[in-house]
Amino acid sequence: MKKSILLTLVIAGMISSTSVAQAATLTAGASTTKICMLQSGLRTLTAVQKSQRDANLPLYGTRDNKGQEALIKSYKPPQQKNTKIIKMAKSLLGVKFLWGGTTPAGFDCSGFTCYVFASQKISLPRMTLDQYVVGIPLAFNNLIPGDLVFFNLTSGTQVSFVGIYLGNDKFISATLNKGVTIYSFSPYWTKAYVGARRVN
After folding, report:
1. Domain end (from 20, 53, 74)
2. What is the pLDDT along the chain (200 residues), one digit of tens a residue?
3. Is the N or C terminus of the chain more exposed, i.e. has fewer CB atoms within 10 Å?
4. What is the pTM of this model?
5. 3-class SS string, the chain
6. What residue numbers bound the domain in which 26 lies?
């Protein structure tokens, strides 16, 4: 009798651990329920709460929209730093475009953003695609001057162009035809817009 109870418990434990192992695999298109279940694991919960604590956010324990909004609000660079980024960017208006350029002798788009942010001791990766993964992602309606804005100007889905948001639906960047210039979010740029990042 005891052996059959013990065997039943062992089998039940194996089935249970198999279900947990299957549930612990995150796949593309996973449901919110599955993601929350994965996040409820002690390591993940602890890590998420630590990042929320470090950002002086309420401890939700999950990366939901409410937490993301609070994170964006807490991740604003000092106004003075943003003002200096914009001032530096505008001081370079008219500098010619140079493929691979990273100095006032000539810029490409990501060389321009690297140079401007470096003036405020903020290091950015050299390539546009790499800049697209630094900082935190933003919705368009959360943009403030000094945020990086990204576009796809080529066929395919990759990010291929970056600029610096100026406010009032305008940004500045180095383009092939005009060099460092200010642009409005015209239908052309709006259609090409991919997303934005805030870097401190």
Report:
1. 74
2. 444 443 343 344 444 444 444 445 555 554 444 444 444 455 555 655 665 565 555 555 555 555 555 555 555 555 677 899 999 999 999 999 999 999 999 999 999 999 999 999 999 999 999 999 999 999 999 999 999 999 999 877 689 999 999 999 999 999 999 999 999 999 999 999 999 999 97
3. N
4. 0.65
5. CHHHHHHHHHHHHHHHHHHHHHHCCCCCCCCHHHHHHHHCCHHHHHHHHHHHHHCCCCCCCCCCHHHHHHHHHHCCCCHHHHHHHHHHHHHCCCCCECCCCEECCEECHHHHHHHHHHCCCCCCCCCHHHHCCCCEEECHHHCCCCCEEEECCCCCCCCCEEEEEEECCEEEEEECCCEEEEEECCHHHHHHEEEEEECC
6. 2-74
Q: Are residues 128 and 108 in the same domain?
A: yes
53: amino acid identity, one letter: R
First to last CA, the chain: 66
Q: How many domains does the chain have?
A: 2
| 108 and 70, same domain (yes or no) | no
168 lies in the same domain as 112 = yes
CATH of the domain at 134: 3.90.1720.10
* Domain identity same for 152 and 173: yes
